[in-house]
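User: Quick sanity check before I run a bigger batch. Here is a single chain. Can you write out its predicted 3D structure?
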Amino acid sequence: MSGGRSARSVSPMMLSWGGGGFRFPVAALVAFACACLLIAAPAALGADGAAQTSKAKAKRSKACKKKARPGVRCKKRKSHPASLPESPRTVTLTWDSSADVDLEVFDANGRRASVQGGTILNAIPGTALSGNDTDGFGPETFSDPSGRRVGYLACYVSGPQANVTLTDSGPGGGRYTATLGPSGTPPDLTHAFTSSVGWGFLPIGSHC
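Assistant: Done. Predicted structure follows.
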């Protein structure tokens, strides 16, 4: 070349061990170290995942409080409780005389299961109302596998006075008693008497 200088070749940086007997490129060492960090990163993140989650929630809460206007509360995330298994409900009406007494049941929507003119009319879906007992003692029964909330009436129709007992086996149910019909033999219809009684969750205006 002109100028009398010879060209030099530039070699990569090298490290040597043992008096120069073994040489290793620095770039290769750097690449190896980076690879080790990438492999270890997921494990490090997973080890304190729970702590990171709680920290993230705390940050979101603080950010919400800073942005919220005076008098406005930050919305909390709703948790969905596990659904509970359904509990069946059976309502049973019995009485102690030969009177004709009817069981009537109402659900929360005002739908009715009853006896009208000797015919069973049941407008509550998925339920059953037993036959009409006209000669006394019962039982008359209402069954609901879903156990929905209901109200019930015991309705005196005719015959002697009757001591009625209603039992509800479903959630929140119980045992109830009352006396229906006129007293005396034969029944004295000239004096006031109780013709119906109700319990449970009866819609407003429910009647026999």
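The mean pLDDT is 78.

User: Great, the batch can go ahead then.
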